[in-house]
């Protein structure tokens, strides 16, 4: 017997209502099991403290190193948390929770929306905590209100891109551990960028990689916006990278989800 429910309510109002329910469900999970969020928050903070106080004095970037490195750490923190989005979906799939949802009159896409939007919200909160710690150790942003709004917008686009990429890995994996290992590859993007050292200090082959991947324009845009520096074309490149990869990942993830839940 098919487990699909032909009586699923349709229309934008039902889709929004179902998505809000799924978002609330995931946020309650985060509140009840905060260990993963704490780890994903502590690691970037430890990295920031390590670079600022251990390596910062030996790295010349033309300004206070803490001001240079914090945007990179913000993106690193966003990637740590967002990359775990797919593992949550894998857990729902392998434990039969999604099969249970299919017997209910809910919009199928709300399952994906719940995971992604809840991850976006928790990531933005953790990003704020990282910025708070950075201010305590000397980070001095010069952005006005519009600059901060633009910076948060770029960060949110990056989080959404990583979330949808992670969802693909979560749908391809057969176990939660497998999804976690797949998603781990995403975490290397900020390391191979201008997040911690200028790209012109890198060997030529690494410089080519660093200057032609999404994390670098995202970090450069956030750095310029928060420090009140000229943004140049970095904001446009960041938006193009994040929207382009994010939309493709969204299409692939939704297709995979439909195929996997149609069994």
Automatic annotation (TrEMBL):
One of its GO terms (biological process) is response to antibiotic. Its main location: membrane. The lineage of its organism: Bacteria, Bacillati, Actinomycetota, Actinomycetes, Pseudonocardiales. It is a multi-pass membrane protein. GO terms for cellular component: ATP-binding cassette (ABC) transporter complex. PANTHER family: NODULATION PROTEIN J. It comes from Actinoalloteichus hymeniacidonis. The chain crosses the membrane at residues 37-56, 68-95, 116-139, 145-172, 179-197, 235-258. Residues 35-260 form the ABC transmembrane type-2 domain. Pfam families: ABC2_membrane. This is Transport permease protein. Belongs to the ABC-2 integral membrane protein family. GO terms for molecular function: ABC-type transporter activity. It is found in: Cell membrane; Membrane. It comes from the Bacteria. Keywords: Antibiotic resistance, Cell membrane, Membrane, Transmembrane, Transmembrane helix, Transport.
């Amino acid at each position: 017997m098919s487990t699909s429910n032909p009586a699923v309510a349709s229309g934008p109002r039902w889709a929004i209502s179902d998505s809000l329910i799924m978002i609330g469900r995931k946020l309650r999970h985060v509140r009840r099991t905060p260990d993963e969020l704490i780890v994903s928050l502590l690691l970037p903070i430890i990295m920031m403290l390590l670079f600022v106080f251990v390596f910062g004095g030996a790295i010349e970037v033309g300004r206070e190193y803490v001001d240079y490195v914090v945007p990179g750490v913000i993106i690193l923190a966003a990637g740590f948390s967002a990359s775990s989005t797919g593992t949550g979906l894998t857990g729902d799939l392998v434990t039969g929770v999604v099969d249970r949802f299919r017997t209910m009159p809910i919009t199928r896409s709300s399952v994906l929306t719940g995971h992604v939007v809840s991850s976006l919200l928790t990531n933005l909160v953790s990003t704020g905590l990282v910025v708070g710690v950075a201010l305590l150790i000397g980070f001095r942003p010069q952005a006005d209100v519009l600059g901060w709004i633009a910076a948060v917008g770029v960060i949110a686009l990056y989080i959404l891109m990583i979330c949808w990429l992670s969802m693909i890995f979560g749908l391809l994996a057969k176990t939660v551990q497998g999804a976690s290992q797949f998603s781990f590859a995403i975490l290397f993007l900020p390391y191979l960028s201008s997040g911690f050292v200028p790209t012109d200090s890198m060997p030529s082959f690494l410089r080519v990689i660093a200057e032609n991947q999404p994390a670098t324009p995202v970090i450069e845009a956030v750095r310029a916006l928060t420090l009140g520096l000229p943004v140049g074309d970095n904001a446009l490149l960041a938006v193009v990278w994040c929207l382009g990869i994010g939309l493709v990942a969204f299409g692939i993830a939704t297709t995979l989800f439909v195929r996997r839940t149609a069994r």
